[in-house]
Amino acid sequence: MDLYTFFRDEGIEIYGEAALPALSERDREYVLEFFPPGESVIVFGEAVPVEVYSLNAQNQTDIMLEIAERLCEKAIQLEGVLESEGIPARHVPLYLPVRIKDGRVRGVVRLKQVAAAAGLGTLGKNTLLLNPEHGPRLLLSGVVAGESNIINTNSVQKQENAEDQGNQNPDICIGCGHCIKACPAGAIGPDGVEVFSCRMISPWVPGPVVPIAKWLIGRQLLLRCMAPIAPFIAKTATIRCSRCVTECPVFRGSEKEI
Q1: What are the DSSP calls for 175-241, one per residue?
Q2: Is the pTM of this model over 0.85?
Q3: Measured between alpha carbons, how far is 104 from 196 in angstroms, rounded to an integer?
Q4: Is the pLDDT score of 97 beyond 70?
Q5: Whole-angstrom distance, CA of residue 182 vs CA of residue 19
Q6: Contact, 127 vs 101, CB < 8 A?
Q7: Residue-averaged pLDDT of the chain
Q8: Mapping DSSP to helix (H, G, I), strand (E, B) and coil, where does residue 174 land?
Q9: Strand residues in the chain grouped as ranges (E)
Q10: pLDDT tens, position by position, 18-27
Q11: Alpha-carbon dihedral 176, 182, 183, 187, rounded to 10 degrees
């Protein structure tokens, strides 16, 4: 199936596909738990413009949420397109579900890791996807599909070439640690981000409540309660900090955006 036309018509320039064998063992398990018929993940994104990060918190939030919701709508549309072609598919929800793994909150389908496997960038110490053109400013969405090699032949060939080159591709993250030092909450460590320490989350889940929240997430109880109100919370919340993005040396991406 050729999805080039779909992405072109929807104005999506950044997309790729990662077959399950290209993912880590852990990510393969996550994908299959989320959607057992899955054979690949189609991931795509849109960059937050550089100038958005200089706006006040509410305006930043409104614009980023608009982009994220637009991507989610495209994922739902793509799911429908695939299903109409007889390909089982399930879009990755914008807000939930999440899981607890090794004491940390993780997305059930880790789109950043999938995007890296699809050749869209590499992961930084801030745990964000670093894209050659847009740095850490990509917002992502995706669809798990019951077939692989769905994107048109040329795109698939480019992906395979990127996978064959593997470690020959330079890591975009230079390991400077600016994101770790810039985090006002000290939430970024060698094992990733402690979500409940991040200033984006901590106002909603105070320290004493964190162990209870983790327990509930681990048993899916909180997710069932939160799912209906998650969009409301997202719309009423504001982005309190984005220094792990703005302090990254590749924040602006390629020179043409500077």
Answers
A1: ---HHHHH-TT--EETTEE-GGGSTTTTTTS-GGGHHHHHHHHHTTHHHHHHTTTHHHHHHH-----
A2: no
A3: 9
A4: no
A5: 35
A6: no
A7: 79
A8: coil
A9: 14-19, 40-47, 89-91, 98-101, 104-107, 122-123, 129-130, 138-145, 188-189, 192-193
A10: 999 999 998 9
A11: 30
